[in-house]
Amino acid sequence: MDIFTLIFTDYTLRIVSIGSMLLGIIAGILGSFAVVRKESLLGDAISHAALPGIAVVYLITQTKNTEVLLFGALLSGVLATFLILSIEKYSRIKFDSSLALVLSVFFGAGMVLLTYIQKMPDANQAGLESFIYGQASTLLKRDINLMLIVGGILVFLIVLFWKEFKLISFDSQYAEILGFSSKKITILLSTMIVISIVIGLQSVGVILMSAMLTAPAVAARQWTNKLSKMVVLSGFFGGISGIIGTLISSMVSNLPTGPTIVLTISIIVILSLAFAPNRGLVWKRIKEKESRRNIDKNQLLFNIYELALNHENIYHSHSIDTIKPDTNRDRESTNILIGRLSGLEDDGLIKRDYFDHWHITEDGISYVENNLLKEGY
Amino acid sequence: MEKEVKYIIEVEDMTVAYNVKPVLWDIDLKIPKGVLMAIIGPNGAGKSTLIKAMLDLIKPVSGNVSFNGKSYKEERKHIGYVPQSESVDWDFPASVLDVVLMGRYGKLGWFKRPKEEDRKKSLEALEKVDMGEFVDRQISELSGGQQQRVFLARALVQEADIYFMDEPFKGVDAKTEVAIMNILKDLKNQGKTVIVVHHDLQTVEHYFDWVTLLNTQLIVSGPVKEVYTEENLNKAYRSKGKILRR
Ligand SMILES: Nc1ncnc2c1ncn2[C@@H]1O[C@H](COP(=O)(O)OP(=O)(O)O)[C@@H](O)[C@H]1O
Ligand SMILES: [Mg+2]
Description:
heterodimer, A: mainly alpha, ABC transporter involved in vitamin B12 uptake, BtuC, Arc Repressor Mutant, subunit A, 2 domains, 3-stranded antiparallel beta sheet, 77% helix, 2% strand, elongated, B: alpha/beta, 6-stranded mixed beta sheet, 10 helices, 33% helix, globular, binds adenosine-5'-diphosphate, binds magnesium ion
């Protein structure tokens, strides 16, 4: 049976794919703001910090109801954010150290509590550790409904506060000047980011969730220079990795869903870093080469222009050794040089007098004065 | 009898400290309406801090500021700001126009989106700072001087009465410096008050009519002709040598 029929017939697979897609979309959208605000690491700390919340809520309520456990995750995520920001503000500890501190203390406490829970003489104990690496197969229809509702609210808030979120993400002091409370907007946005993390914990787990938050946004940033497009594209990348990751893990036995989703988005990131126009590495390389070639040509023309200015007769011609002095020029580079000069002659900017002597033309002078000089030659 | 001067900004007993180190110490400063004022002082003198404390971006340990006798919050709509361009991440995904439009956000208030009129004003401001060709340029592709001009345009569309600018000439070429200076003089001629953190001691006399010398404490503040003297500069820079080339 091929994979598409499987999605339409296998109820569990359908639920899990939709759930993973939704978590990818939500994390992708909110993650864009974490990335442009340079707060990706904060996301990492928050997701690790959610673990003790889950354990504590389980200890108090003794239920394994996802909504209840995730509420615990939300509380400890918010608490961790608050702690990190306060430590930075009220002590001399730097932001990255306070992140590391809170992350390890909370995650450590979470692990201790989980071990304790596993050792309890109670039948209803197993399963909590699935929050560490996530277990997408435990997604239920009602988890999907929860994601839809929460995701809908988050998107609505982003549209409503679009201008304000954009402003504080770029320049929060200026936001204050304009009369917007940076503090209130930041609290709202950070809370929304925490919620988007919590939504994904069940499927992806506390360790890998920050990748779901950051990776789609990093990939999306490569393809666009506009925040709105970045947010949409990031949601798309997140969603598509959710589906693809789920399907791949369903086809290969023993391949866990969460990590497969993260691998999928990682591949999208690598491709984007390499091949995106403008920002991609491959594209940059090509541009660099091209510009080196042009600079060479422009530099030659400029040298000829300078030489011309040194003579009464500006059409006095010069040999290639005067135009571009180079003591260790070999045959090959001489040929390249002559090729370049011939190129300039074809453009009508210089003229060949007799064998390997050249002088500038009127067009050449005006090209230098109107273009090159303005570019800072 | 002395001519009555109308002060638009009054700073009283202002002290600002980071941790235990006082960065500004007991500053009393009165700025008359309609001046083009330079704030001068060595690196780390607290020039940026003074502006930020006046704009309520930093809480002073003590002291207060009034604008036209009112608090900053009441007068906020009339105050424009050009921060140091290093204060933001220029790799943020936005175009030049996007950034200038932000200057209109304060007038728009919560939730409202910029309208055609806001766009028009932003484009005009960009023309004014000679950035008309770069409207759609991604901001990460701007030179330092272009960044400064974008921030200046963003402040211009605030249509404020009092402008604070933190080193608007930093990293700009000579031509841009003249262009920016003409805009500042324009603002002054419209009756606006412009306060500029400035680092080039030699141009103060040509550019400004009022000056404040600062080095943690206020050294002196007044008309350039009267207070911009070798003696006061030596106090501000704690030096003995000749500072001005005249
Ligand atoms: N956020 C900060 N935390 C601690 N010290 C600071 C901070 N900002 C500025 N300072 C210190 O305050 C002093 C004044 O800084 P600043 O106002 O930026 O000076 P200026 O603008 O005159 O160069 C400097 O010594 C600087 O190191
Ligand atoms: Mg400064």
